[in-house]
Amino acid sequence: MPTKFTPLKASDQRNRSGDRILVLSKANDLLMALSGHPDGLSLREISLYVKLPRSTVRRILETMEEHNWVITAPSTTTYRLGPTLAWLASNIRPFDIGKSARPILMQLAERTDESAYLCVVAHGMAVVVDLIPGSYPLHTVATMGTSLPLYATACGKALLATLSDEELGILRDQLKLQPLTKNTKTDWDLLLAEIETIRETGVAIDQEEYQPGICGIAIPLRGPSGELGTISIPMPTERFRTIGESLIQQLLQATQALRWSR
Questions:
Q1: Among 103-107, 132-136, 242-246, which stretch is predicted with the lowest mean pLDDT?
Q2: CATH 3.40.190.10 applies to domain 96-254
Q3: Can you say whether residue 240 is alpha, beta or left, with left for phi > 0 and alpha for psi between -120 and 50 degrees?
Q4: Average pLDDT over the chain, rounded to an integer
Q5: With 184 labelled, which of 2, 25, 191, 207 sits at a CA distance of 20 to 30 A?
Q6: For 10-87, which CATH class?
């Protein structure tokens, strides 16, 4: 007798969906750990980086290895990023604004010695889509593909300034302002007042609102095809206090051709 099909309960469906999402998140953490180590990492080292049991890491790595997302070095037991990722990367279509912004990023990084970032809005976050590292060391979590909160970073607030009042109203209903540091704005009225100031001055500033000891400056942009983005420079608070005003002027000058306006 054939087995009768029993549909999953809604709670079971949510649990299975959540499990899949969690596995994807863990796989992403593994790939990000390997991205900073082109010569590879051992199973033990990866486990330490991502803070997961070796058994869990091994299962995920085995699946990714089957699809060449990662490979093991022939003469060692270390894992490295695999050729599938290179093939996928070769098929990425650059953001239109990225073509115009990259020379500006390079110029800013060279002239200021600071790291320069290009961010766009995606899924309610500010996402880093390009960056040129500066010569000054900066220990932050922002790398290519990093998602940053719109309300607590210079790049995020610059992007918020480019949104219409209607879009901001929708976002206000969806986004809860969580305190990330003691300086984070958690009141929408205060945030909206700052957004209005950014629209008038063309400059967004983060003063240790996302990460203690780190400040940032950002300028909202509009690309040739109308795509919106922002160029930002994060830096330690001490450097911001010393050269912040000078960097603002350099940013304004460098982004003049792409600067967003109402």
A1: 132-136
A2: no
A3: alpha
A4: 86
A5: 25
A6: mainly alpha
